[in-house]
Amino acid sequence: MAKIDKARFWTGVLYPENMREDWKEVIGDTLQYPYAYCQHSQDKDSKSEHRKDHVHLIVAFPNTTTYKHALNVMDLLSAEGKKAINKCEAVVGIRNVYDYLIHDTEDCRKKGKEQYDPSERITGNNFDIGAYEQLGTAEKNEMFLEMGQAIREHGFTNYMDFYEFVVDTYEDMNYIEVMRCYSGHFERMTRGNYQRWEQGQRGLRPSQAQHHASTTKTTPDCCPACGSIDIKKSGKTLANTQRWACKDCGKKFV
């Protein structure tokens, strides 16, 4: 899976010794975005020794943002001349990361991690976990446009290639959901790319192609797959339509 470069929710770990002394008092005005955090001071390693204190933080942006921007926002809590955070991660499932703040997940319980009381999970700037679990219309529209742009940029000419691209590129399952809801639209876009390619093979402009389609001859000009003019008849379909075959690439078409 490819690394997620843009997301709406980001999480990171900060170390208090490198944070502003008044970070708890100014975190809301400093971040200026909804946030949730929990300070871990009771964690132990595999040898039951005390782990260095740290703060797990989630920042919720109004729209998808880049890794660099998310990291810069969290870094605002660093003390002058110090670095409280080195990296952050895109949130795939907001509920799971929200629960992880207090180690209230199945994996944490299996590993025997310290369970923190829900009261130790601090939220601010109108952080709303319930609202974030529901994908908003604006986010759906943004994902819709992003995937449509991918079809244009990569020139996908069939839906299967586009589907594999989405699955391999996006870890956020919301992209899969948007693709499923608008599968007909994306399929028409990939078909449109194929038709453009086909028109290019014939050397026709769109207006010419429309005229060409209205005056279709009984014999095709060329193979739609490779453009070869070396074609032959290859039986008929159940609807009694002539089927053709390309002698060069073997492609059969109607």
UniProtKB/TrEMBL annotation:
<dbReference type="GO" id="GO:0003677">
    <property type="term" value="F:DNA binding"/>
</dbReference>
<protein>
    <recommendedName>
        <fullName>Plasmid replication protein origin binding domain-containing protein</fullName>
    </recommendedName>
</protein>
<dbReference type="Pfam" id="PF01719">
    <property type="entry name" value="Rep_OBD"/>
</dbReference>
<dbReference type="InterPro" id="IPR002631">
    <property type="entry name" value="Plasmid_rep_OBD"/>
</dbReference>
<feature type="region of interest" description="Disordered">
    <location>
        <begin position="197"/>
        <end position="219"/>
    </location>
</feature>
<dbReference type="GO" id="GO:0003916">
    <property type="term" value="F:DNA topoisomerase activity"/>
</dbReference>
<dbReference type="GO" id="GO:0006260">
    <property type="term" value="P:DNA replication"/>
</dbReference>
<keyword id="KW-0614">Plasmid</keyword>
<feature type="compositionally biased region" description="Polar residues">
    <location>
        <begin position="207"/>
        <end position="219"/>
    </location>
</feature>
<feature type="domain" description="Plasmid replication protein origin binding">
    <location>
        <begin position="3"/>
        <end position="129"/>
    </location>
</feature>
